[in-house]
Amino acid sequence: MPTHYIGTMNPRVPFALAAALLASVTWGLAQQLEDTFYIPLDDPAIQYGQRPVDDPVARLEQRLESGQVKLEVASNGLGYLPSVLKLLGISPDSQALVFSKTSTQVENIGPRTPRAIYFNDDVMVGFVRNSDVLELASLDPKQGVQLYVLVKAAEPAFAPSQGCLRCHQGAVTMGIPGLVVSSVHPVSQSRQEHGNAFMTDHRTPLSARWGGWYVTGTTGSQTHLGNNTNLVDPVRSGGPSSQPTQNLTSLTEMFDTSKYLEPTSDIVALMTLEHQVRITNLMIRIGWDARIGMPADKLNPEIEEMLKYMLFADEEPLKAPVKGVSTFMETFPQRGPRDPQGRSLRDFDLKTRLFRYPLSYMVYSAAFDGLPDKVRERVYQRLYEVLTGKDTSKTFAGLSPESRGAILEILRATKPNLPADWRL
């Protein structure tokens, strides 16, 4: 079973205490990148916050400054949100709603006013009702996650937000500025212990996911922690909910959904976001380790960790079909690319696992292509060994010959600049 770190994402808790909690308590095995040392942001090979960046938000800011585009203010209390999503190519149906107090805007977040998260492959946008600030996390292929705020003003501009590093750089982000998705868990029955927040991803059982989040969609007999509005504060979270929380297809009884772009917090979007967060952090951390000169005997185990995650080797299997209620299940796969047989790494399974072809679609991302050459070459080498069946280790035993062959064919048809031996 994979490691999941317990701690608090509440900004009222001192960062040193949070880091200590995160580093000291594990669920399952250790020996993961979350265990390792921080990389100093001012390391000469990194210089985070000092070097020029080329991420989607930075490029959008350049277009705003040049007058090529303009942000429009919506008249329904959504501010710049619809305009920003459109210009960044983010679909509103990616909306995920979180009501736990895990943001610097805790005063405006609650069960009646959840925070909305929207995302695509390289940008996340956070929206809070009754706030003049949008929060953004944008992925630079080399410098990693860049954190911005957009304040409603006569001449809006995206500004770097170093304050966000309180929660976005820590053990759970592998010691680099990264992305975070956590699940608030309730206090014990005796109510003598604090609640806590777990980082979650595709390795996490559904029963431990989405505490502090709204979840629309069905999971059959499988249960999760979503829709329990007692789970608000990671430090003082409550116990079981007296209201129905499972298999909800509408949130209208919870809050006024008309004040948001979508009436949903789609379960399939949430599962996709969780997967994407960790693979993004893995790619950036391993890229940074290579840039600071980590030797191959240290770097290769990290690459194996990423390879295992990319191939969903330790994915928690679904025990019943999962179905969302928004258009995300249709629009996400449409972003392709597809091979001549119409297959895509974005195709969902949702019966026994998340994706039909278990290799992360983030293999197409700028972050993957931006990995240092020696890392990317090693990943390609190991991928080829696994997909062609040369690797017969137990780690990838759950990957059937049919899945290996299909993934190999999809990559050969859709991934530019593959190594020459992949074409043989």
Topology:
Blueprint: E1 4-7, H1 15-24, E2 26-27, H2 56-66, H3 81-88, E3 96-98, E4 115-119, E5 123-127, E6 133-140, E7 144-151, E8 158-160, H4 165-168, E9 182-185, E10 196-199, H5 267-291, H6 296-310, H7 328-331, H8 366-369, H9 373-387, H10 401-414
Antiparallel strand pairs: 1-2, 1-10, 3-4, 4-5, 5-6, 6-7, 7-8, 9-10
Helix pairs in contact: 5-6, 6-9
How would you sum up this structure in a few lines?
This protein has 424 residues and is of the alpha+beta class. The chain has helices at residues 15-24, 56-66, 81-88, 165-168, 267-291, 296-310, 328-331, 366-369, 373-387, 401-414; strands at 4-7, 26-27, 96-98, 115-119, 123-127, 133-140, 144-151, 158-160, 182-185, 196-199.
What can you tell me about this protein's structure?
This protein is of the alpha+beta class and 424 residues long. The chain has a domain at 295-423. Helix content is 26%, strand content 11%. It has 10 helices and 10 strands. It has helices at residues 15-24, 56-66, 81-88, 165-168, 267-291, 296-310, 328-331, 366-369, 373-387, 401-414, and strands at residues 4-7, 26-27, 96-98, 115-119, 123-127, 133-140, 144-151, 158-160, 182-185, 196-199. The chain has a 6-stranded antiparallel sheet with strand order 3-4-5-6-7-8, sandwiched between helices. 46% of the residues are buried.
